[in-house]
Design goal:
about 150 residues, alpha+beta, Aminopeptidase, seven-stranded mixed beta sheet, 7 strands, binds coenzyme A, NAT_camello-type, transferase, AcTrfase_GNAT_prd
Length: about 150
């Protein structure tokens, strides 16, 4: 498995894997093709160097994405942070370290850009992701509606 910078032509893989990754978690996700495509474009525009893709090096199949936004101003911290807007892995590829490798890449990028904190919002009933983030050293730091804010100093 290798991790590379995302490109504009990764949009189709993003739409396909995003749809599969959020099955059962639709209350926290975009559900139409149109919304997912504009979300991809929005993420690319927010920070064009902060989106990374995990690729199976033997088949060149794309298996996951992370999007870190180092231009994000956190009103909680009153400064720019590395905002992990998105992280997902193809269901068949879970539990193999792909999510961890992608998250570490996003964090490394935020650090390179001089950020000292990463922030993200996870659905309150998305227990698997919450456990995953806790394992990765994130701590809950507030909530808004059905979202839990999590942060990690980097
Ligand atoms: C959350 C997600 C990205 C994790 O990806 P993954 O590739 O399965 O995670 P990894 O295999 O890298 O796991 C890394 C560590 O977290 C742990 N972990 C992963 N899923 C876990 C779970 N459901 N419960 C507890 N621990 C978990 C692993 O055991 C592993 O620990 P280790 O390093 O000690 O072995 C993936 O489940 C996913 O795509 N979920 C749907 C989309 C989503 O909810 N994204 C987050 C939105 S905020």
């Amino acid at each position: 498995m290798l991790i590379r910078l995302a490109r504009d032509d990764d949009m189709e893989d993003f739409v396909r894997i995003y749809g599969r990754a959020y099955e059962g978690l639709e209350e926290y996700a975009y559900t139409t093709r149109k919304e997912i495509k504009s979300y991809f474009r929005w993420l690319r525009k927010r920070d064009s160097e902060g989106m990374f893709v995990a690729v199976d090096d033997s088949t060149e199949e794309v298996v996951g994405f992370v999007a870190c936004d180092t231009n994000w101003y956190s009103s909680f911290e009153e400064k720019e942070v590395g905002e992990i807007h998105e992280l997902f892995v193809e269901p068949e590829w879970r539990g193999k370290g792909v999510g961890k490798a992608l998250l570490e890449k996003g964090i490394e990028y935020a650090r390179l850009k001089g950020r000292d904190l990463t922030e993200l919002w996870v659905g309150e009933k998305n227990y698997k992701a919450r456990e995953f983030y806790e394992k990765m050293g994130f701590k809950a730091a507030g909530s808004w509606g059905h979202w839990i804010r999590m942060v990690k100093r980097i």
